[in-house]
Amino acid sequence: MTAAAPAPAPPPEGSTLLLRQVKEAENDFDRRLASARTEGEQRLASIRSETERAIAEARASAERGYEAALESARRSAEEEAESILSSAREQAETASREFARATALRPTDILDALVRGILDDDA
């Protein structure tokens, strides 16, 4: 005859309590881990958003600085060009006056030339 297998012994009372405590600790850890993960993702999204905003502001500021520098350079070039043109105009006017003065015929010069022409013709 075969003997029937003995029935398993009931677990000691402390072991079920211990398993329940381990399971509660695992569940608590899982909840805290999920909470920390969510918080970390939110912080990361916030940091990303702040970084993108800061980059956009820096780009806008750099663009404004570039435009201001470009406008300043344009004004400076225009002022320098105007100065050069003004100086050239003054030099041209001075040269024109000097040329006119050097080539101007005085009435006495005209009379002298006529008299000389008449005297030369008579000779």
Structure description:
It is a single chain. The longest helix has 91 residues. This protein has one domain. With 123 residues, the protein is mainly alpha-helical. The protein contains two helices and no strands.
Uncertain segments: none
Element-by-element helix/strand order: HH
| Residue-averaged pLDDT | 87
Give the helix level as a range of percent.
over 70%
Largest sheet: none
Number of strands: 0
Spatial gap, N to C terminus: 181 Å
Q: Counting H and I runs of at least 4 residues, what is the number of helices?
A: 2
- What would you call the quaternary organization? single chain
Count of domains: 1
SS-based structural class?
A: mainly alpha
Query: Which band does the percent of strand residues land in?
Result: under 5%
Identify the overall geometry. Answer: rod-shaped
Spatial extent as radius of gyration: 53 Å
What are the defining features of this structure?
0% strand; rod-shaped; 123 residues; single chain; mainly alpha
Summarize the structure in short:
The protein is mostly helical and 123 residues long. It is built from two helices and no strands.
